[in-house]
TrEMBL record:
SMART domains: AAA. It comes from Rhodovulum imhoffii. Signal peptide: none annotated. CDD domains: ABC_MJ0796_LolCDE_FtsE (cd03255). Residues 2-217 form the ABC transporter domain. One of its GO terms (cellular component) is plasma membrane. Gene3D superfamilies: P-loop containing nucleotide triphosphate hydrolases. This is Putative ABC transport system ATP-binding protein. PROSITE patterns: ABC_TRANSPORTER_1, ABC_TRANSPORTER_2. It holds the Pfam family ABC_tran. One of its GO terms (molecular function) is ATP hydrolysis activity.
Amino acid sequence: MLELCDIEKSYIGGTGRVPVLRGVSLRVGPGETVALTGESGSGKSTLLHLCAGLDLPDAGALCLQGRDISQTDDSTRARLRRGTVGLVFQQFNLIPSLDVAANLAFQARLAGRHDPAWQATLAVRLGLDGLLDRYPEQLSGGQQQRVAIGRTLAAKPALILADEPTGNLDEETGDAVLELMLALVAETGAGLLMVTHSPRLAARLGRRAHLKGGRLD
Ligand SMILES: Nc1ncnc2c1ncn2[C@@H]1O[C@H](COP(=O)(O)OP(=O)(O)OP(=O)(O)O)[C@@H](O)[C@H]1O
């Protein structure tokens, strides 16, 4: 469902073009979970943003559900992203003026896939069913990230892209949240590409892709 072939990406810096990705190829199929690791500045977030269609590569093909998005315009990429991809970031990015139930429903409604029964199942599985009328500021960090994960899964994405999803949580809470996320991702059959600095967390996923010198090991 996600296929990258020879992706290249540079940024223009004070000293000219700085190559970050120098020919990255990667495939994430349904049900596959892949940890994207690499030193700070190695290009993990850059790669994840390209996969989400938030930015364009300089060269190479990037296929989502068989469609090459590397040459498409912003609105086409936004439509394809809404239909296919779920994003989970370190910052929970919940909508402060909406309660938990409305936050959970938000992306699914945008994607035209609101399914109240699935949302209710997710709320129970994520331990949020007693918190549905609370607002984000009334939740702990771990609870907020569980809402963010539920909001993503509620839209039934085929591919989930996660950037350090437990990076803002203490180790014990982060481990529990990751465990829940992995269990739910496995049940939905989605593919998962997750950036992490932690070899310990990377080991919980099915496969590891390590960025070094602009390429994947
Ligand atoms: N918009 C930008 N303009 C210029 N340079 C950028 C831009 N975004 C990222 N970079 C540079 O590209 C390189 C890769 O950055 P990126 O954020 O992808 O790395 P990362 O592996 O995610 O790092 P970290 O683990 O610290 O979050 C870095 O050298 C960074 O300074």
